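Running co-folding for D-xylitol-5-phosphate.
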Amino acid sequence: MSHLIAPSILSADFSNLRNDIDMINKSEADWFHLDIMDGVFVPNISFGFPVIEQINKYAKKPLDVHLMIVDPDRYFEKLKNTGADIISVHYEAVTHLHRSVSAIKSLGLKAGVVLNPHTNIILLEDIINELELILLMSVNPGYGGQKFIPNTYSKISRLKELILKKNSKALIEIDGGVSLGNFKKLIDAGADVLVAGNAVFRSKNPTDAISKLKKI
Ligand code: DX5
Ligand code: ZN
């Protein structure tokens, strides 16, 4: 499978969101990445259901929802009803991870788990066969435009080994500081999906930036 690109709406122009949604629809991007922050799990608040509903109204590609919130199970059903296709919860934010993952899957959605930069991939060994997606944070979650943490490369390789060893179908997604300068190295290490916020929306030509990120 060729790698996927998921532009992060967090870096879009919220005063003209429709424009950026249409740009992603027409581009070579594969998913819409939606960052939901509650100001408790992470030190920032992003957007919630009214905005997700509007994105879903016009988006023609899957919605990849990254929940940076405590007690995320409260919102799975509402997220399904507002168009989520993939829901990822933070390992660090839930107590009963197996229960959360099962709840997402029982709604017919794809389930992902997110690891913060300090969290070891080995903690997923006993749940990896239940997961469709593993999102490795390559910055500390909370903000777009942060500096990439280089330890991510070795983390991807170790996770890839574990996925192969366990015969899991999980995709590896990388989120934070992805750029035209490092995306090839991330793919080489074993990444399947790249989230890109600033690399897309702060570039002069976002469509072109997406296209460049798709080429290896
Ligand atoms: C950070 C978010 C990211 C962010 C990525 O907490 O999870 O998705 O939008 O932005 P860039 O690509 O600019 O680092
Ligand atoms: Zn994210």
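Result summary
Residues 8, 33, 35, 66, 175, 195 surround zinc ion (ligand 2) (CB under 6 Å).
The first strand starts at residue 4 and ends at 7.
Job closed.
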